[in-house]
Amino acid sequence: MNPFGKSILGKTGTLIRHSLVNQHRKEKSGQLLRITFNLSRTVIDSRETGQSQVASRLLLSALLLYSQRQRYSTILLRVHMFSILGITGKVGGAVARSLLAAGQPVRAIVRSQEKGRVWAERGCEVCVADLDDQQSLIPAFQGSKSVFVMLPSNFDQADGFPETVSMVTSIRHALETARPQKVVCLSTIGAQATQSNLLSKLGIMERSLSVLPMSVIFLRAAWFMENAARDIQAAMTTGTIASFLQPLDKPVPMVSTEDIGQVGAELLQCDDATLRVVELEGPQRVTPAEIAAALSKLLARPVCAEVVPRQTWAELFRSQGASNPEPRMRMLDGFNEGWIEFDSDESAIRKGSITIDQALTRLVQRISQ
């Protein structure tokens, strides 16, 4: 008998069904009730009423009482899941934290259960998948209201970006099969640039995913403020930071990964069904000299920025392990020469709220801990 086969919320008009599974799990502390998410059945559908959080809380309360009386140890629910690729990184993690703070259910797509443990402890469902394995991605995307997709960082790509093409093909085919309502894709400033460079891989992804039969939003983010993390130790020890962005007084569009996470979570939750591009940068553009000045203030010691001559880049990057430094060099050229830029008018570019001073303060605090 299914005692919750009809609505238990009355006037909210929210349709609720449930599935109880009679599985007893033992813990060291004794018999515990567990709540997990089951993506095989529709349980809560409140999109039309806009009362998903209220419905979820009332449903959980009712099922908790019922399961305790019936001695069920596991309740399996299905809600409209938000699935996140790259959740172990800065951007994907920021998106997930924003969704969790809004009371939304999150599925962490990771490469191993170990990597997903911290997110499971935060209440996320964990799904193990690999970007090169289309078959593992399909169940990771299935049952999702929205999916956040991004590519892993790789500064050393072969000509033609074959690794990117393989991953994007796998992601596209999995999305075509899983059919979520919406996809939000982390892209980049300059994805539309015609000159080949490291960021061209995001242009490849945009072109491939734009043909999907669902709502797709490309979130083109500026240079990450958190890229300055690699400069902090040098600033602490030598008082000098090496700058590939030049000249030192040239303002560069930058944004905090926390702002990207906020906007990404917002786009995943909105009801916009169009194919569009959202471009995002911080409250103001930042020069390398201003980064040095901000670090000087934070570290209470003189810090200056020094230009890394372009003619030394190839040898330097190869000494760091790169086999093909040219795409990375051309990306830096694009920022320095101005052909890596946003495609929209300035008035259409979204502005984050986190300043470079705030971003650097967080980085310094993290390193000092």
Task: Please describe what this structure looks like.
The longest helix is centred in the first third of the chain and has 19 residues, at 52-70. The chain has an eight-stranded parallel sheet with strand order 10-9-8-11-12-13-17-19, with helices on both faces. The protein is built from twelve helices and 19 strands. Strand 3 and strand 4 (30-31) form a beta hairpin. The model is unreliable at 1-58 and 69-78 (pLDDT under 50). It is α/β, with parallel strands linked by helices. It folds into two domains: 10-77, no CATH class; 81-368, Rossmann fold, CATH 3.40.50.720. The protein starts with 14 loop residues before the first strand and ends with a helix.
The CATH top-level class label of the largest domain: Alpha Beta
Largest sheet: 8 strands, parallel
Q: Please report which band the strand proportion falls in: under 5%, 5-15%, 15-25%, 25-35%, 35-45% or over 45%.
A: 15-25%
| Basic shape | globular
| CATH architecture verdict of the largest domain | 3-Layer(aba) Sandwich
Count of runs of 4 or more consecutive helical residues = 12
Structurally, how many domains make up the residues? 2
CATH superfamily of the largest domain: NAD(P)-binding Rossmann-like Domain
CATH fold type of the largest domain: Rossmann fold
* Helix proportion range: 25-40%
The beta-strand count equals 19
Low-confidence stretches: 1-58, 69-78
- Rg over CA atoms: 23 Å
Mean pLDDT: 84
Distance between the termini: 55 Å
* Structural class by sheet pairing and helices: alpha/beta
Across the major sheet, the strand order is 10-9-8-11-12-13-17-19
